[in-house]
Design a protein that fits this description.
41% of the residues lie in helices and 0% in strands. The protein is built from eight helices and no strands. The protein is elongated, with a radius of gyration of 37 Å.
Length: 194
């Protein structure tokens, strides 16, 4: 059988499958590498099929880890709503009327200083001047917490801003405990004059 070397020869033929645009290739023998690859493929397929068919998945249900949640939780009475905790109450109350439950005692001030250092100083700086390591890249700079207008805010207003966020300040109610947020308010008050 004659095999065309290029498309022109193929088109030049007037009859047979070559005229219909079918290309033929020379018959060749498989090399050693190709045979080896075929053998590896067949053996791998056999192991895979044997593994899937031979595995007893039904026994897996007998494991303790699968039955961890077999104990059902008690059903809650209808209309049950939590009345304590959460942060929604902050937005539903006038923040000027929220008193700070912590007194400016040394342990509370120390707690506020540590929480401020961990969560706020990156932007506001250790002195609260808005020149923290991260805050220096902002334009405008983060708020100077020692400024008159910040110090004029009530404790409740500062607590609300820390909890729910403001402008670029992220909401921290789910990150910082409520007592630590109140302690941070005390620390902000103590920043004046530093």
């Amino acid at each position: 059988m004659w095999i065309a070397k290029n498309r022109e020869e193929l088109v030049a033929q007037s009859q047979g499958p070559e005229a219909r645009g079918v290309w033929f290739m020379k018959e060749r023998r498989m090399g050693k590498g190709e045979r080896g690859l075929g053998v590896v493929f067949c053996v791998g397929f056999a192991f895979l099929a044997g593994g899937l068919l031979g595995c007893d998945y039904a026994r897996m249900k007998d494991q303790e880890s699968v039955r961890t949640y077999e104990t059902k939780l008690p059903s809650m009475p209808s209309g049950t709503v939590p009345i304590e905790g959460g942060v929604l109450w902050i937005s539903s109350v006038d923040p000027k009327e929220i008193p700070n439950p912590l007194k400016p005692e040394p342990q509370n001030l120390q707690r506020g200083r540590e929480a401020f250092k961990n969560f706020c100083s990156m932007c506001h700086g250790l002195r609260g001047d808005g020149r923290g390591t991260v805050g220096q890249s902002f334009h405008p700079l983060p708020t100077d917490l020692r400024s008159q207008w910040v110090q004029a805010l009530s404790d409740g207003e500062l607590f609300k801003i820390i909890s729910l966020g403001s402008r670029r300040s992220p909401p921290l109610a789910h990150t910082i405990s409520e007592e630590d947020r109140w302690a941070i308010v005390l620390h902000i008050r103590a920043l004046v004059g530093t």
